[in-house]
Amino acid sequence: MRSAHSSSLTLARIAACTVVAVALLSACGAKDNAQAGPGAGAKMPPPQVGVITTKFQPVALETELPARVEAIRTAQVRARVNGVVLKRLFTEGSMVKQGQSLFQIDPDPYQAQLNAAQATLGRAQANLTSTAATVERYKPLVEAQAVSKQEFTNAVAAQKQAEADVNSAKAQVRIAKINYDYANVYAPISGRIGRALVTEGALVSSTEATQMALIQQTGNVYLNITQSAAELQRLRKNAGGKGTGSSVPVTVVLDDGTVLPQKGKLLFSDITVDQTSGQVTLRAEAANPDNALLPGQYVRVRLAQAELPAGILVPQQAVTRGGPNGDTLMVIGPDNKPVPRTVKIGSQNGENWVVTDGLKEGERVMVDGFQKLQMLPPGTPVQPVAWTPAATPEAAPAAPANAGAPAAKPNAAGAQAAAGTAAGSGNTRQ
């Protein structure tokens, strides 16, 4: 049998363990209450999202098209006489002026031809002097019948033949002088000259018109633009047949997305469609003071070819393009719940998309705050606030204007988060 003293010790130990356990549970509960705070049971405020209020306004339908740069004036420097190149008188890649000497072709053969022509001219002039003196001497003699009329007639004919010989010799001198001058090759226009296409000692030919260099004026350049005829008709149809014509501003975009500060202008649009490609050619002119555009370079241009009487501008970051349901955005309903909406994009206008269908005037479109929706259950109300574009020194390059091309989807996650709530009520059309 256990002693009474042993039983008392066991009960005491059990009581002590019980007290310790209760104390630990109390401490854990106090810690949880301290972390939760006094307002743990209060409801979290709705997240703020940036919105814009839609409105109709006349907008220009912009499109982005490929183009090739072409120098506004080009001159091919070619040989006009035969000979061996003795000197190159310019620096490759430099600016040259009209009339500047570029190459020196061996002039000795042409100097000799010029000397021979001048000698022939002197002989013809001497013969003319002799025949003219004979005619003057025969005039009084034929009147006195001391000389026959036939002899006088022959003297007059000889004088006229001598005059013709003089004129022919003068022409030969002129030709020889031109050829001699052609031995010194001059710049036909002012501009930037490329590399020399011939070297000293090369034999050039006037028959083959050997090209020696190329001069291009690039202070202003042409932009040869190609556009699908079907796309041009679609733009004009969207604008109700109101085209903008020529002289519209043209924005130049380089391959890396850099937008040039100086704008060009559209000169004309061809009226003939290429039968092989189905495209129409347009030409624009742009200033190129710093030679950022090089002849033959591929660029893209943005221009407005039509004007929409009434359209809605939406920032590009608000639209999810190329999704399963087409182009979509988030509309904040009267209950402040975001609802996905399928819209129709007409074209691009700067940093905005032109929405032609799917929105009404006065609706609120969500522009930012899409990340906040990912952590909320579908259908959660939000607090809309007016959205202000971020002021950046250099705007990011705009997305291509092709309506069917996929673009960046910064709001794809937010759109998917709310899509389950309003999938059946979000396809409102105008």
Residue share in β-strands:
25-35%
Total strand segments: 19
SSE ordering: HEEEEEHHEEEEHEEEEEEEEEHEH
Shape by Cα distribution: elongated
Characterise the protein shown here.
The chain is α+β, with helices and mostly antiparallel strands. The chain folds into four domains: 48-59 and 309-419, conserved putative lor/sdh protein from methanococcus maripaludis s2 fold; 63-71 and 218-308, Elongation Factor Tu (Ef-tu), domain 3 (Beta Barrel), CATH 2.40.30; 80-105 and 186-209, OB fold (Dihydrolipoamide Acetyltransferase, E2P); 107-182, Orthogonal Bundle (Helix Hairpins), CATH 1.10.287.470. The chain has six helices and 19 strands. It has helices at residues 4-36, 108-143, 149-182, 229-238, 370-373, 412-419; strands at 48-53, 57-78, 83-88, 95-96, 101-105, 184-186, 191-193, 203-204, 211-228, 249-253, 264-269, 279-287, 298-315, 320-323, 326-332, 338-349, 352-357, 364-368, 383-386. It has a six-stranded antiparallel β-barrel with strand order 2-9-12-11-10-13. Strands 6-5-3-8 form a four-stranded antiparallel sheet. Strand 16 (338-349) and strand 17 form a beta hairpin. Helix 2 (108-143) runs antiparallel to helix 3. The longest helix has 36 residues, at 108-143. It starts with a helix and ends in an 11-residue tail after the last helix. Mean pLDDT is 80; it is low at 1-7, 29-41 and 392-430.
